Amino acid sequence: MAVSLPAFFRSRQGVIGTIVIAIILILAIFAATWTYYPQLYVGFGIRHDPVLDGYVSSLHSVATEQHPTNLTVWSVTWLNDTAVRVNWAFTYLAPGNQTSNLSRTALYKESFVMTDFYGTNFASGYVGSINSNYTLTNITYDGGAYQRAFAHAPSTFAVYQDNLGQGNFIWQFDQFVQVGSLTRSFCT
């Protein structure tokens, strides 16, 4: 039994024309969603999370403004589409100890992985699953990179410090979670 196609599809020009129109429509939809819904492609590995990228850029701006001459390291490595590793450091003049009144140059280093979760509840669930050896130390946000990036303070903010005093921390800003460590040492 032969399949009967409409007259439009019987000609080669009709088939080619239909294929061209379909391709143009698909490309137009792709271009529109790429522009107006950038988050849509993050999960497919096609692009980095633009919201996280903007937040990291804002964090870099704040660090550069606060340490215009002594920011010694700033590196960002994308781990996947929604997580980055940030390493940064700066030097500062530390006060002397009790036996010596001389100031010494000190180094502050911070390294963390920042992840953009699908929503605040997912981020809070993740923090709740990894904070057993940490103590909640702060829930009051006092401004900074998040507020600069999004023009408002986070609705959920929490800072956890490790119970062993090793400089490990967990920070949550709404759907963003930072897990890392910081060290302070004197330069020799």
Overview features:
188 residues, alpha+beta
Briefly characterize the structure.
The chain is α+β, with helices and mostly antiparallel strands.
How does the overall form come out from the CA principal axes? elongated
Roughly what fraction of the amino acids lie in strands?
25-35%
Series of H and E elements: HHHEEEHEHEEE
- Structural class estimated from helices and strands: alpha+beta
- DSSP strand tally: 7
Give the termini separation.
89 Å
How many structural units, i.e. domains? 2
Largest sheet: 7 strands, antiparallel
Low-confidence stretches: none
Q: Averaging pLDDT over every residue, what do you get?
A: 82
What report would you give on this structure?
The protein has helices at 7-10, 12-36, 50-66, 120-130, 145-150; strands at residues 71-80, 83-94, 104-116, 134-138, 157-162, 168-173, 176-186. With 188 residues, the chain is of the alpha+beta class. It folds into 2 domains: 7-36; 50-186, no CATH class. A 7-stranded antiparallel sheet has the order 1-2-3-7-6-5-4, with helices on both faces. It is elongated, with a radius of gyration of 25 Å. The protein starts with 6 loop residues before the first helix and ends with a strand.
